[in-house]
Write a structure and sequence with these properties.
The structure holds two protein chains of two kinds. Chain A is α/β, with parallel strands linked by helices. Chain A has 23 helices and 19 strands. In chain A, the strands form six sheets. Chain A has a five-stranded mixed sheet. Chain A has a four-stranded mixed sheet with strand order 2-1-3-4, covered by helices on one side. The two termini of chain A are 48 Å apart. Chain B folds into two domains: 61 residues, Arc Repressor Mutant, subunit A (Orthogonal Bundle); 77 residues, 3-Layer(aba) Sandwich (Glutaredoxin), CATH 3.40.30. Chain B is 42% helix and 11% strand. Chain B is built from seven helices and four strands; from the N terminus they run ααααβααβββα. Chain B has a four-stranded mixed sheet, covered by helices on one side. The radius of gyration of chain B is 18 Å and the shape is elongated. Classes of the chains: A alpha/beta, B alpha+beta. At the A-B interface, helix 1, strand 11, strand 15 and helix 17 of A face helix 2, helix 4, helix 5, helix 6 and strand 4 of B.
Chain lengths: 627, 168
Amino acid sequence: MTETKPSNKNKQTILVCQGTGCVSGKSLEITAALEKAVSELKLTGVKIDFTGCHGFCEQGPVAIVEPEGIFYTHVGIDDAREIIESHIRDGKPVERLFYKDPATGEAVPKYEDIKFYSKQQRIILRNCGHINPERIDDYINTGGYEALTKVLNEMTPEQVIDEIKRSGLRGRGGAGFSTGTKWEFCRNAVGDQKYMICNADEGDPGAFMDRSTMEGDPHTVIEGMTIAAYAQGASEGYIYIRAEYPLAVKRVRIALEQAEERNLLGDNILRSGFNFHIHVKEGAGAFVCGEETALMASIEGKRGMPRSRPPFPATSGLWGKPTTINNVKSLATVPVIINKGADWYAATGTEKSKGTCVFALTGKIANSGLIEVPMGIALREIIYEIGGGIPDGKKFKAVQTGGPSGGCLPETYLDQSVDYESLAAAGSMMGSGGMVVLDEETCIVDIARYFLSFTQAESCGKCVPCRIGTKQMLDILERICCGEGEPGDIDLLEVLGTQIKAGSLCQLGQTAPNPVLTTIRYFRDEYEAHINEKRCPALSCPSLITFYIDPDKCQGCGICLRSCPAECIAGDKRMVHVIDQDRCVKCGTCLEVCPDRFSAVTKLSAETMDVPREPVPVKEKPKAAAA
Amino acid sequence: MIVLAVDSLTKADVEDKMKALFSRHNGEKQELIPILQETQGQFRYLPAAAMKEIARFLRMPESTVYGVSTFYAQFKLTPLGRKIIRVCRGTACHVRGASKVLSEMEKQLGIKAGETTDDLEYTLETVACIGACALAPTMTIEGETYGKMTTKKVAEVLGDRNKAKQQK
């Protein structure tokens, strides 16, 4: 790598990530420490700035030095001075903060060379991590609001709709309906007042791409929304954001104010005669409000309960007026399609699923974070090349897509193409883009129980199949996890699941059984092991596992005894420790703390180990030479 | 839900604050949720006396105000602790051991999720997902996020949360 020029010649910028993840890693303090170091060293050619989420939260807090594109990971407050002194003043980047490739252990200094990024194709997230989200000029300098200018000056609403239809863009909220067609319905609907709503009620546990987009590049959402409003003839708009996302709310509000100041929003936008106003509505903590009719009820100030469709929102939506509801990611894509053209966008992806999709890659994976990949990519590529595989040498078990509405796909589906149709055919769904990787230590029955406990608690209670049916299914799953499953439970779950899907009012109930049905389809043997053998193959369900201290290995060091939160381990110095099984809470602390050189604690399911009832003297440790 | 704290505020206690709050609104029915959010911001919960004032201001039945308040998870009808701890139970957190963190937190505070400590210092809640999944398991105290939690770190963040070591 060539050495960078001294700072007074090349203007350098240090971009510190201030997404939610990095802020929790103290990135605000790091920014302050960098600024302090710059002023103490009296350097002038460098600017400290911040950005939204880079997506690589696992490595946070992260910072990029531009224009070189040097990527620093796990930056601490104490590292600030060194970065300024060594990199900025002396032109020597701080190597110990470089990203290390998990496969090779090699240090990778530049952002663009890191596999996590180089395998991605960023359209929706194009600006996230590269611009200051609280400064409209940063967005404008990357070509922001050019699409809006073009639309207002050169295109009719019909041409805009046609362009979006031809691009093949489908709703990124999960259902995958054609965005252009949706707009056309609303455009053709009769009404004096029309509404444009941005659904930012990202409630799926395990998904955070909408939050990151709003935190990192709020103007692209506003621009997309304004274009959508123009195409449909809407004059009022709402962004409905979860209350749990305070930073996103703050940045969107700042962006709205700035856009209004520049006449990119408000009355007579860019002197085109087109008026559009956007209001922010904060959700109040109800998952079901992600469903469009429930969301509209919530904006109207009511309990957020869905209603049956038709009438669809396009004809009778908010306050009975024609309304369109689009997801954050769909809207963030719109300005790019207008700028680069429908054909450019449609060149990426598969025949029926065009463009890119964003996933929140989390769970048992080396590189957690936010990724954007072309539709049609194989799951294997996402998990092993971008995600860096499963950490700690564990084995891949399943990948869960689509959150509580989706399903778990086993290893045989790793070469599956990721697109709307293929995922649906496998029993899962694209959903809003959560992708949680499960390893051999994750119990599949417990995961199904977990998702159902979530949807069951979030069921609004309006329709019977969802309210009572999900509760029945959850009761059965809880029994199975506790070792009280009965023959016939699997069939019963399948019957109930099919009926709930058919009979529920909204997508919450219609999809709630998916995690259970797919896990039965692909991992039936695990259900059977729980029910018939009272065994948890992943050694995870507390009621079905037992911890033992191996008398041949225990050296009586006392670490587990002192750490046990239930105080149920008996023993003494040089005495083999014994767990009182009646009082053990199965927390696994003893297994965690037992030193590697002893590894005396074992976890078993449906098996027993011969251990003494009372502490006994430890056996002599075999000599290393003898072994 | 077991509730340790009680709602003791009367009309006289809330009247002035509610009047000031209403002055920023037009009295339209769609304002109910924002008004409830602001009221909770003022009192840290929704006093029954305040909900009655809201019903009068928006010219709607008290039952409607109550119905909306109980529908959304954000709204609380009894006083909350000074510090709200939210343990994330999102998918990523779940597979990385969130339930252990939660039970350790329950043990240390001596309360269950959904409850408030006797001294009104802490309220313990669970949240479906705070969207910081890469840092799983996570929790927040008064909005500040703590990532990569372990049972050991629970005591640390409770003991002196300002000095809680920066995790790597």
